[in-house]
Amino acid sequence: MHKNIVILISGSGSNMAAIVAASRQRRWLERHGAEVVAVISNRSDALGLVWARSEGIATAALDHRTYATREAFDAALMAEIDRFDPALVVLAGFMRILTPGFVAHYAGRLVNIHPSLLPAFTGLHTHQRAIDAGCKVAGCTVHRVTAEIDHGEILDQAVVPVLPGDTADTLAARVLTQEHLLYPNTIQRLLAQKD
Questions:
Q1: 39: closest CA among 74, 68, 5, 1?
Q2: Which positions are annotated as active-site residues?
């Protein structure tokens, strides 16, 4: 059975690019019948859309600011995603809080990566908060998406040290390197479970 993956982004899409590269290198299509078939953004100027188009991947942009309500945007987003009949919907730097209806629609198929070791530091500014708290380690978490932000089942984590003199930016760069490894690996394991 063919498994389509749809990735949602809001910016440069570095995790999206890492997932696409890993999927092609590991031949997910041959091994799991899976491939990234679409990249969708809530920002038409997201640089990741340019990269995805250059890779021959279908793209779409739905500007959330043109919708009267969060529910209306999510309904339009669901309609766009569902055109691709996704086995997995992957949030990769998608900076929108999703409605409970959206989350329920993709229950069991919706995953996210968060730049902290959940359950610590949900939400924004995770790296600075980890430094301010005196943490010796930080990292990233791949988790299932639920209606409660950053509280879904933890699927995997990667740990990096917090070094003396770290800034939010230097820590973020170290964590991002791990995100690019962890996210594709976790997605491949999820695909294997769906085989």
A1: 5
A2: 114
The whole domain housing 169 covers 3-194
| Domains of the chain: total | 1
* Residue whose pair of structure tokens reads 């969060």 in the numeric block: 70
Could you give the angle at the alpha carbon of 123 between the alpha carbons of 41 and 5, nearest 5°? Answer: 35
For 79-84, the CB contacts below 8 A with 24+ separation are 80/40, 81/6, 81/8, 81/38, 81/40, 81/106, 83/38, 84/4, 84/6, 84/37, 84/38, 84/58
Q: What CATH number does residue 41 fall under?
A: 3.40.50.170
In whole angstroms, give the CA distance from residue 111 to residue 107. Answer: 9
Task: Report d(CA 89, CA 188) in Å as an integer.
Answer: 13
Is the CB of residue 80 less than 8 Å from the CB of residue 60? yes
Segment-wise mean pLDDT, segments of 10 residues, the chain, 195 residues = 93 97 89 94 97 97 96 98 97 95 97 97 96 98 95 97 97 98 96 83
Which residues lie closer than 8 Å to 186 by C-beta, 6 or more apart?
Answer: 111, 142, 155, 156
Residue pointed to by tokens 């890492």: 18
Comparing CA positions, the residue from 93, 3, 1 lying closest to residue 40 is 93
pLDDT of 57: 98
Q: Look-up: residue for tokens 């639920």?
A: 146
49 phi, psi to nearest 5 deg: -65, -40
Q: Which two tokens stand for residue 61?
A: 């942009």
- Report the 10 Å Cβ neighbour count for 125: 12
